[in-house]
Amino acid sequence: MQAKKGDAVQVHYTGKLEDGSVFDSSANREPLGFTLGDGNMIKGFDTAVDGMTLGDKVTVTIPAAEAYGERRDDMIIEVPIEQVPADIKPEIGMQLTLQGGNGQPMPVVVSDLDEKKITLDANHQLAGKDLIFDIELVKVN
User: Fold this and answer.
1) C-alpha–C-alpha distance, residues 35 and 129, integer Å
2) How far apart are CA 9 and CA 6, in angstroms?
3) Structural domain that includes position 25
4) Cα–Cα distance between 78 and 56 in angstroms, integer?
5) Residue 60, Cβ neighbours under 10 Å: how many?
6) What is the value of pTM for the model shown?
7) C-alpha distances in angstroms, 69 versus 94, 95, 103?
8) How distant is the alpha carbon of residue 132 from its chain centre?
């Protein structure tokens, strides 16, 4: 059975960066289930699964533009240090959540700080990176 847009599919996958480091995997977990073409997966992953036949295994490289996009400078936010709540002791690499303009939570990472300001990066951690996925189609409905 061949997977096509609108099908409910399940896949096992391992996601790697170009240096070979694994950032996510379904190994030792249930397969990942999603509806092909519904927009819930990154474009390149969806495209890779479309047309696979049950049991197929593929390795695909998904360019950043079809994954989490390129890194954007407008997603870097500088905040005066006095605006940081007193109970937060920021450190480089610390993950925080801000409230976006529409009330939605916006995850950020502290990318720099000094005595006057804190720099927050709201880019997705995989933005700007080409991703390599090993994918196995295990179920098609």
Assistant:
1) 25
2) 9
3) 8-69+126-140
4) 47
5) 15
6) 0.83
7) 22, 20, 23
8) 13
